[in-house]
Amino acid sequence: MKILIIEDEEKLAISIQKGLKQNGYTSDYVLDGELAEKRLSLHRKDYDLVILDLMLPKKNGFEICKTARTNSVTIPILILTARDAIDDKVLALDNGADDYLVKPFSFDELLARIRALLRRPSEKKVPILEIDDLVLNPNSREVTRQDKIINLTLKEYELLHYLMRDPGRVFGREDIFAHLWDFADSSLSNVIDVHIKNLRKKIDDEYPKKLLETVRGVGYRIRN
Question: pTM above 0.70?
Fold first, then answer.
């Protein structure tokens, strides 16, 4: 799961990012409203949830939230702010926020709110993905091949899920990196290769039909 943190206090943004990483989440942060709006516009498919401060330079959180919903950005938005007036909460929720947490806050509560939002059903039922005899259930996070359970790390699961959502499509390394890793991560040179190698070992090596394909010079795909 990847989270976008929109928070103008950089120390707090970094602290949240570190806490999220320790709990298995990937995240990026931006420090002003205009950058946040641009990031959501260009990379909405790369994020599963947004943590949004209300008081931001250049454009406030109310505007960002409203614009996101107007532009059909449907990912959950969790407001995180020092403003605790009832009118502010009502306005944020009316503008499309999904939840509201007041600073100072317990990080355990933040994690609980995140888990609750990510558990909420989307407008469409999340389908079970099946490619040949490989099955991925997003609801239980279980992966099987020929009915045998395959144990994956969090990143391996997210990588497989990303590829299986669009079988046959070749995903470039930059696409995969942008979806699954922090923008600031400097390990692009080999991290994708390592995870592809480990994933292939788990889902392909024991089976005659190979599903995870490398398209030389382009990227990777799950064959349909």
Answer: no
